[in-house]
Amino acid sequence: MQNALEILHKRPSGLLVFDSTWVDSFQKLVAPFPSGEDILRSPLVNFIQGVSLQGVATLPLCGFPPPHQASEPEFVIDDEGRWKGALPTFIASHFSGSEFEGILAYAEELGAALLYTPFGYTLVAGDHDLMQRFSHEGIDALKVKFSRYAKKAKDRHGFIREVTEFLPPGQSSWKHSKEVAPGSHVSNQLTLMHSLTNEEITPEEFIREWLKSRREAFNSGERVRGPLEHLLNEVFYALEDYEPDSNREPTTHFGNNELIEKVREILNLME
Predict the structure, then answer these.
(1) What is the rounded distance in angstroms from the CA atom of residue 33 to the CA atom of residue 143?
(2) Number of helical H runs and strand E runs in the chain
(3) Which phi and psi (to 5°) does residue 106 adopt?
(4) Which residues, in sequence order, are CB contacts of 192 under 8 Å at separation 6+?
(5) Phi, psi angles (nearest 5°) of residue 7
(6) Which has more confidence, 125 or 225?
(7) Secondary structure of residue 9 in the 3-state scheme
(8) 60 backbone dihedrals φ, ψ, rounded to 5°
(9) Which region, left, alpha or beta, applies to residue 95 given φ > 0 means left and ψ of -120 to 50 means alpha?
């Protein structure tokens, strides 16, 4: 495994970010978050709950030290999200905004990482499942939310504007089906819905491809909101209730015909 600190890169301005080679090679998603004064109320808790944490490195202003390798008991969090162990003590004793420029928490095999800074921003890099812990609306929603925060905090933290330029929202959000960009993953979801109701594909094919497009829409930053978001969620919930006709319980699950009719009903509401 490469040294954990090698996944970081300092831009000419001094902005500390994740190295693009690591991000691109492992197809990581990167999202920005505000950094509050209390790190234990930052995304760190969500991050640790979502990964198998390997270590934490403190990053002094004078340079990067070897990562602090923490034993597993230090990072235990109970079912209610409360800390158990020594991590808060470790952070409190090793981190000061005047002496350090960040904390890097990283998962096993560098599968994910979190960079906390005292300069108003935190970055999280990981896969789709990890990002779902922070937002079910997609990574672009996180970037938009950070942009709103940046407008208020830009005078307090000089790096904030650069973070928004480095990680800009990639898409507009679509409120109605007629607004969806042709060729997008959301557009493909709508096409699949029409194909199902026209009996051009089977329910099994529809489910497989529709869920794939839903994941790809999230990963690429496509965003839906309002009525369109609600109706696409209705499709997702219907898929959770679906069972093939051959082995379904008629009173508790959707069969083939019920699924097709539900999707047709949703399409009618979109028009």
Answers:
(1) 8
(2) 10, 12
(3) -140, 150
(4) 201, 206, 209, 210, 213
(5) -85, 0
(6) 125
(7) strand
(8) -70, 160
(9) beta
Q: 238 with 226: CB under 8 angstroms?
A: no
Give Cβ neighbours of residue 242 (< 8 Å, ≥ 6 apart).
203, 207, 253, 254, 255, 259
Q: In this structure, what token pair is assigned to residue 261?
A: 């009719």
Are the C-beta atoms of residues 205 and 239 closer than 8 Å to each other? no
- State the chain's mean pLDDT as an integer: 78
> Which amino acid is located at 46 in the chain?
N
What digits encode the pLDDT tens for the residues 144-166? 888 888 888 877 888 888 998 88
What domains, with CATH codes, occur in the chain? 4-166 (no CATH), 173-270 (1.20.120.650)
Confidence of residue 252 (pLDDT cuts 50, 70, 90): low
Decide which of 118 and 230 is more confident.
230
Specify the DSSP class assigned to residue 4: G
User: CA neighbours within 13 Å on the CB side: how many for 239?
Assistant: 19
| Residue 21 one-letter amino acid | T
In sequence order, what E strands does the chain have?
8-10, 16-18, 29-34, 53-60, 68-69, 76-77, 83-84, 100-107, 113-116, 121-126, 173-174, 223-224
What order do you get walking across the sheet with 53-60 strand by strand? 29-34, 121-126, 113-116, 100-107, 53-60, 68-69
What are the residue ranges of helices labelled H in 95-138? 128-132
pLDDT at 203: 92
User: What is the bridge-based pairing of β-strands 76-77 and 53-60?
Assistant: unpaired
Q: Give the span between the Cα atoms of 239 and 175, in whole angstroms.
A: 22
